[in-house]
Structures are given as C-alpha cells and as structure tokens.
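User: I'm putting together notes for a lab meeting next week and I want to include a structural view of one of the chains we've been expressing. I don't have a solved structure, so I'd like a prediction I can at least talk through. The sequence is below, exactly as it appears in our construct file.
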Amino acid sequence: MIELHQLVKHFGDVRAVDGVSLVVPKGEFFCVLGPNAAGKTTTIKLLVGLLKPTSGSARVAGFDIQQEPIKARSCLSYVPDFPFLYEKLTPWEFLRFTGQLFRMNDDEIRRGAAELVPRFSLDEWLHKPIEGLSHGTRQRVAIAAALLHSPAVFVIDEPMVGLDPHHARIVKDVLKERTRLGMTVFMSTHQIYVADEMADRVGIFHRGRIIAVGTPSELRRQAGTDGALETAFLALTEGETERNPAP
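Assistant: Thanks for the context. Below is the predicted structure for the 247-residue chain, given as structure tokens.
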C-alpha cells in the first residue's frame, strides 16, 4: 500500500532524506523511529504530498502522490504531531466538514461518527467550540476525523502527544483493530515502547536514511541484544554514527 523509491529531499545544502526506499504492505502497522533531525517527518511529508521530492517517488495504494495526488489522497489520512483544526467549529462540524471533503454523504458521516465519537470519549465535547478544548481532546478529534472515511492508509506523526494513558490506550486499540481489517498504518514516534508494543515492523531512521528495518525481535538480534527495544535502537544508531561520522 505504501511504496517509497529512492526518495531524496534537499533543503539547500542539507540532505534531509537520503535515498529512502521502503514497501509497507496492506494491513501492516509500521513504526518509524529515529533521533531528532533523522528525516522522519520530512519523509512523512513527502509520502502524503506536502513536500515535493528532490528525486525519487512515493506511491499510496498504487497512485504516485505527485502524479495522481487526488487519487492518492482519497485513499489516505494524515494526522501531524500538531494537527490544525478550525477553532470556531465544534467537533461535530469538523467531522462533518472532513467527511464532506472525502465526498461522504450525511448518512455515511453520521454512521461513522456514531462509532468514533463514543469510542474517543467525545460525546461531552461534540457541540462545543474546538477553541475551548484541551490539546488531548483536540488530538482525539483529529484522529477521529481522519478515520471517518475508513482510509486505506493512515499516516500519523507522534499520535500520543497530549493524550492521557486512558485515551492513548484507546487510540492504540482502534489503530490495531483497523490494521486487522486491512488498513495500513505508518506511524512516527519517539516513544520506543509504543513501537515495541504496536508495530509489525519498525524502521530506524538516521541522518536521512533507513539504517534498519524489521520486527522488534529482528532488530534486537541485529543489534546483538535481547533487552528492551530502546537498547537495540541506541546500539544501532550509535553504531551507524561510529561507522559514518558527521563531516
């Protein structure tokens, strides 16, 4: 469902993404880990079409995001780490607006909302202006809206930011349920335990490249450790730094 082929992105002299190639099949929960400035968010923005690559390509559900952007975007949803919401709208108005963008009719929107609103504990806030909601509640609104049209591909950057443990658990459960139904999840996170718990496979980014891809167990074996995934992550990134020191 996701195909990245030799993606490269320059910002002036900075090579933020350096030849990233990756295939994520239907129904896989794929997590991206990496230090700050490793290229994770830039890769996500290339994947969803917010940035144009210097070279290479990104395909979603078979559609090139640059060549067929409408068809590609109709198959996906993207929730950034700090999602933009129209603050004067209520959550219900924002859900309806989002559904209409994806050409859902009112009955489809109501059915989707009837499932997602109680699941994300939004009933109490459904008709109150978004500008008065907490960051965690806004995050839940954004995720619910992104799931409303049942996307084939769900791309999310730091999903647990601002969520309390109860609602973080709900988000993880819903995303895992959706992958079992065939949705592909591409998630970037700094919370290594989340990747260890949720991911079918993990990709580790470092200096704009993918330095390792595999299941959490495979990454542990590659790093030569049987402890926490954090230990494997640190070993792999530190080893890469030693082999390829910064100029």
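A couple of points you could mention at the meeting. The longest strand covers residues 14-24. The radius of gyration is 18 Å.

User: Perfect, that's what I needed.
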